[in-house]
Design a protein that fits this description.
The chain has about 80 residues and is α+β, with helices and mostly antiparallel strands. Helices cover about 65% and strands about 20% of the residues.
Length: about 80
């Protein structure tokens, strides 16, 4: 790949597949900011969901709600002891 400074604000990239694209530096920086903003919003939403799920798990534990997987495992273990 070949990188050429076309002018003060533009990077020209020549790719081996003979595709030529030109990128304006301001556009690239705006893209970077937009992508980071979207990423941060996505992570914040997932963090909020994770917090809610963990609160629900804690409430289940507080109330003695059991996991079916734990019940099945306990049943298997008790069968082996007999």
């Amino acid at each position: 790949m070949e990188y050429i400074k076309k002018d003060e604000t533009t990077l020209k990239v020549v790719k081996p597949i003979e595709e030529v694209r030109e990128y304006n530096l301001d556009f690239l920086r705006d893209q970077e900011i937009a992508i980071l903003r979207q990423k941060n919003e996505f992570v914040a939403e997932r963090d909020k969901e994770l917090e809610e799920v963990r609160a629900l798990i804690a409430k289940c534990e507080e109330l003695g709600v059991k996991s079916q997987k734990e019940i099945d495992l306990a049943n298997e273990i008790s069968k082996e002891k007999v």
